[in-house]
């Protein structure tokens, strides 16, 4: 009789610990890491969404154009240019390039920059200002992805060393 009671307690304790152990195993991984579906959705989201959509693009383009149009090293190209219209055009282009679904009906990079005779130094300063603004408003991964998309435009925008 004594032995049976002892066995009953041992079995009851064993069952209790097993249940506790299982429930911890079942909940811990979910609370630490995103599910497979969640991580898949995160990696497949467009660059446009990941960088913060139109608000981020607008602020970055605005800050960049304000800086390059007032910096003596780059300002000459922007002398007679309507900046609000230019900002809108660049925003649409970047929105489209990053998967935001905007229409860009402006000129090609070759046509819109050929008369300005932009140098390598001017292009590099523009990109540096753009990079700094991106650093303030989006994450490193998204910043680098966008800069990688813009980099090949150099050959159409720059017309002399
Ligand atoms: C990757 C870098 C650049 C991108 C993505 C870019 C993009 C653009 C876009 C989309 C337009 C508007 C075209 C249109 O509406 O038809 C434009 C025009 C213009 N860009 Fe750039 N640009 C870049 C670099 C530069 C640089 C380095 C300068 C000068 C330092 C510059 C000066 C201008 C000017 C002055 C215009 C107006 C041209 C006009 O209306 O006659 N851009 N750019």
TrEMBL record:
Alphabetical UniProt keywords: Heme, Iron, Metal-binding, Signal, Transport
Entries under PROSITE patterns matching the protein: PROKAR_LIPOPROTEIN
Keyword Nucleotide-binding: no
GO MF entries: heme binding; metal ion binding; oxygen binding
Signal peptide feature range: 1-25
InterPro entries for this protein: Globin-like_sf, Globin/Proto, Hemoglobin_trunc
Residues where heme binds: 113
Record keyword Magnesium present: no
Gene3D superfamilies per UniProt: Globins (1.10.490.10)
UniProt-recorded name of the protein: Globin
Native species: Methylotenera versatilis (strain 301)
